[in-house]
Amino acid sequence: MRGWLKLCRNGATRTVLLVGNYAVKVPRLGNPETFYRGLLANLTEKKFGTCGFAELATVVYGNVFGLVLVMKRVRPVRHRGLYFLELERMRVESGLADEFILSDAKPENFGYNSQNRLVKCDFGN
Hints:
Elements: E1 5-8, E2 14-19, E3 22-27, H1 32-49, E4 59-62, E5 69-72, E6 75-76, H2 80-93, H3 98-102, E7 110-112, E8 118-120
Antiparallel strand pairs: 1-2, 2-3, 3-5, 4-5, 6-7, 7-8
């Protein structure tokens, strides 16, 4: 199993705790606007992440208020060239709108699921 526990604080509106095979996202504390944007991001990911889109990381649990969101953990993108090739494949083959897939399309917002498929893991904004 990958590193069992890791805290990631580099998100703009949320803090992510990686626990085993799961990623737990909570709104960042600080100013109220950042906190509210984190709540909204969690609620948005809960809405879309439970619809079964193959291009999105799977949401396992989402608190009704957006305070906590649990996703299946994905492996980070390591090869930028391959990432851009797979992103284009995703854009062409997906039933999702191009704008949705390409919104904030940087390697840090994508990862590889357990089937080694590129998925978007940060789609709350």
